[in-house]
Design goal:
Layout (H helix, E strand, L loop, with lengths): L1 E6 L4 E4 L15 E9 L3 E7 L15 E5 L5 H12 L3 E5 L2 H11 L3 E5 L8 H9 L5 E6 L9 H6 L3 E4 L4 H34 L3 E5 L5 E4 L1 H7 L3 H4 L17 H10 L4 E8 L5 E10 L31 H10 L6 H13 L4 H14 L16 H11 L31 H6 L10 H7 L4 H12 L2 H5 L3 H13 L10 H15 L2 H6 L2 H13 L9 H7 L2 H5 L5 H15 L12 H16 L6 H21 L9 H13 L7 H25 L15 H24 L2 H19 L11
Parallel strand pairs: 2-3, 5-6, 5-7, 7-8, 8-9
Antiparallel strand pairs: 1-10, 1-13, 3-4, 10-11, 12-13
Helix pairs in contact: 1-5, 5-11, 10-11, 15-17, 15-18, 18-20, 18-26, 20-24, 20-26, 23-24, 24-26, 25-26, 25-28, 28-29
Subunit structure: Interacts with RAF1. The interaction promotes RAF1 activity.
Keywords: cAMP, Hydrolase, Metal-binding, Phosphoprotein, Signal
GO molecular function, one term: metal ion binding
Length: 758
């Protein structure tokens, strides 16, 4: 893109509007500045002042003005107030339409959020129309989940830019404000700046012509029309060579100009142009090439309104700030997949029209977040059971710190010699006869082993998979390791005890035997999966991450409130294993193989953290299921898959497979997890901590409802995806039966695990 500025007189316009633009042209030392101010009736007003009167105006330093229109104070309005404070935005609160309009007329806020949950208090659409009349702003309509409109057209017609469904989580409010600031609000700033710049071009006394990279005329201003005698319609879309040139120019002048432009340099000099009436006119011309990032390509993206297209020395200016980080990324020798995607989109922007480029800008903002696959945790029908499960399992609700001292983990100094696999008592061996079946009853083994099922089941499963041979460790070392790991599970926990670990180990072994899983994984992956399943909840205190963070526990402090339990399980498992040669199953491994195995185990244990549940499931669906389905439609049978994603999905499904177990086992597990949550709620009330899952009050909780919500929100989609990959019809049938069972109890208004006896 090229800019031609003809110096007809000695006057020059210079725009000072950081960070959106740089000097338009610079032909004379006597400089005019343009100052921008806002008006309710006419938007941005241009004030031209001379050098002595110049002032610096930087939109990047302006504090965003936010107007919150809420009929009454509640947790949601408080959430947005907190978010505004955190983002350093100026926030005003209005309770009535009259006060909202009065406040807006005084300050002309950049962002207006209107609460539409209580529509009887005011008409949100009418209020938005009044605020937006003659003024470009970003307006958000705030809704309850059960009040979503069937069509968004009435909202768009009223002037709303966005719809936000009720979610009082402070970080959700904060993230929403940041997205609005970097999306719609900045776009409005740029649009206002663009309009102002266009106005300045139109009013300039300089003749300005803007062409594309291939020298097609895209814009001429009125001064150009007046001087040259042409109308815009006669020039727009034509190549420069189609416009007659004066014969007075030197023969090699055009070649000299083109040579400068190709090198990315400005050209300035005397040029003779031919007016429409045939007269030649001498012009002092400056031609400035607008070069893209790094000087390697020309920017064609924003047409005649590209600020850089009218600069003389601004090709490295503030309007290229958006590309600066991308320049560094382009120079990297190693790129992550998300970086490659961003680079592809960025490259596509270069040849895209303005609306597409702006849409891609928003895509890039989303892709640069760290929570690509995490949904906004609003729920359908305002189901409190789902809300509490999400709040308890997927978020960390921090409050005033209560510091709790935890005792060091006790590891027995002397372990009784465990039994050999061949010497297992017959009654225990009998309970494990069908351990390779999905319908295996772990509770029978728990009773037969007096709550030590992990050691015995571990011995049999690890033997079946040849783990000792792979690790080059004696069977006695494996037995000692299983026993010390089991000793560090809390038998007092109703759910997170060694029986749960044994159950997850059983499910993991079952999944590893499925044909497609076997094809996908190497022997080291199988061993990592079995070990990870064994240790994935070691030393679990029977409380959630949210509880530990709220209580200010030593573990939460140690792990910075991030994946507290999962980090602890993985770290403690390796501490236990490596501190004593008698149970160090990794002792004889080659160093590099051990590091690979260790990383795989840690990754799988961390994958059981529920805050990233949707990220793992969505990655599996998009990276494995969808490509697999496409290949199978074409008759292909792929055998290579992303092993990391397969292993994460495997242990996640094994960890929360209870709803897919035979009905009696499912009911027993539901009772155990409910009891553990009841105990946590009791302790939170005793200590005065926030109750993270209020529905799990043992006096009022409906266990069927909690199971229905858990299956609906977490289980169904995940096991649909896992079944599509591993082929698990029996599990899906159990899941269907169990869901119907819980629905039947709920329809009868029963809160218990089982119906009353007939």
């Amino acid at each position: 893109m090229h800019c031609h500025a003809s110096c007809i007189n000695s006057m020059l316009l210079f725009f000072f509007l950081k960070p959106f633009c740089k000097p338009l042209c610079k032909l004379h030392p006597q400089v005019l500045y343009i100052k921008f101010s806002s008006s309710a009736s006419s938007g941005l007003i241009l004030h031209v002042v001379n050098e002595k009167q110049k002032e610096k105006y930087d939109l990047s330093s302006l504090c965003l003005q936010v107007l919150l229109v809420f009929a009454k104070e509640d947790s949601q309005s408080n959430g947005f107030c907190w978010a505004c404070e955190k983002a350093n935005f100026r926030c005003c609160m209005a309770r009535t339409p009259e006060s909202a309009l009065e406040c807006f007329s005084e300050k002309h806020h950049d962002l207006v959020i209107i609460d539409h949950r209580h529509s009887r208090h005011f008409d949100a659409e009418a209020l938005c129309l009044c605020c937006g009349n003659g003024w470009m702003l970003t307006c958000v309509l705030f809704l309850r989940p059960d009040r979503e409109e069937a069509s968004v057209m009435p909202l768009i017609n009223a002037g709303f830019n966005r719809r936000y469904v009720e979610n009082a989580n402070m970080m959700a409010c904060y993230n929403e404000l940041l997205q609005l600031e970097h999306g719609e609000v900045r776009a409005q700033f740029k649009l206002r700046a663009g309009n102002a710049i266009f106005t300045a071009l139109e009013q300039s006394q300089e003749a300005i012509e803007i062409t594309s990279e291939d020298q097609v005329i895209q814009y001429v201003n009125p001064a150009y029309e007046s001087i040259m005698g042409y109308q815009q319609g006669e020039l727009i879309g034509k190549e420069i060579i189609e416009v007659p040139k004066s014969e007075k120019n030197k023969p090699d002048l055009l070649e000299t100009i083109n040579s400068c432009i190709r090198k990315g340099k400005e050209w300035q000099g005397i040029y003779y142009a031919k007016k429409k009436n045939g007269d030649s006119i001498q012009q002092n011309v400056k031609i400035t090439p607008v070069i893209g990032q790094g000087g390697k390509h020309k920017d064609r993206r924003k047409g005649s309104l590209d600020v850089r297209s009218t600069t003389s020395r601004g090709s490295d200016g503030s309007s290229q700030r958006r590309h600066s980080s991308m320049a560094r990324i382009h120079s990297m020798t190693i790129e992550a997949p998300i970086t490659k995607v961003i680079n592809i989109i960025n490259a596509a922007q270069e040849s895209s029209p303005m609306p597409v480029a702006e849409a891609l800008d928003r895509v890039l903002e989303i892709l640069r977040t760290t929570e690509l696959y995490s949904p906004q945790l609003g729920t359908k029908d305002e189901d409190p059971h789902t809300n509490d499960l999400v709040g308890g399992l997927m978020t960390t609700k921090l409050s005033q710190r209560f510091f709790v001292h935890t005792e060091p983990h006790h590891i027995p100094s002397h372990l009784t010699t465990p039994l050999s696999l061949n010497d297992i008592p017959p009654r225990i061996a009998q309970t494990m006869e069908n351990e390779d079946s999905w319908d295996f009853d772990i509770f029978n083994l728990e009773a037969a082993t007096m709550k030590r099922p992990l050691t015995y089941l571990g011995l049999k499963i690890f033997s079946r998979f040849g783990v000792c041979e792979f690790l080059s460790c004696p069977e006695a070392t494996l037995r000692s390791w299983l026993q010390v790991i089991e000793a560090n599970y809390h038998s007092s926990n109703s759910y997170h005890n060694s029986t749960h670990a044994a159950d997850v180990l059983h499910a993991t072994a079952y999944f590893l035997c499925k044909e497609r899983v076997k094809q996908s994984l190497d022997p080291i992956d199988e061993v990592a999966a079995l070990i990870a399943a064994t240790v994935h909840d070691v030393d679990h205190p029977g409380r959630t991450n949210s509880f530990l963070c709220n209580a200010g526990s030593e573990l939460a402090i140690l792990y910075n409130d991030t994946a507290v339990l999962e980090s602890h399980h993985a770290a403690l498992a390796f501490q236990i294993t490596t501190r004593d040669d008698k149970c160090n199953i990794f002792k004889n491994m080659e160093r590099n193989e051990y590091r690979t195995l260790r990383q795989a185990i840690i990754d799988m244990v961390l994958a059981t953290e529920m805050t990233k549940h949707f990220e793992h499931v969505n990655k599996f669906v998009n990276s494995i299921n969808k490509p697999l389905a496409a290949l199978e439609e074409n008759g292909c049978h792929p055998t290579l898959f992303n092993r990391i994603l397969v292993k994460r999905m495997l242990i996640k499904c094994a960890d929360i497979s209870n709803p897919c177990r035979p009905q009696e086992l499912c009911i027993e597990w539901a009772g155990r997890i409910s009891e553990e949550y009841f105990a946590q709620t009791d302790e939170e009330k005793r200590q005065g901590l926030p109750v993270v899952m209020p529905v799990f009050d043992r006096n009022t909780c409906s266990i069927p409802k909690s199971q229905i919500s858990f299956i609906d929100y977490f289980i169904t989609d995940m096991f649909d995806a896992w079944d599509a990959f591993a082929d698990l019809p029996n599990l899906m049938q159990h899941l269907d039966n169990n869901f119907k069972y819980w629905k039947g109890l709920d329809e009868r208004k029963l809160h218990s695990l089982r119906p009353p006896p007939e």
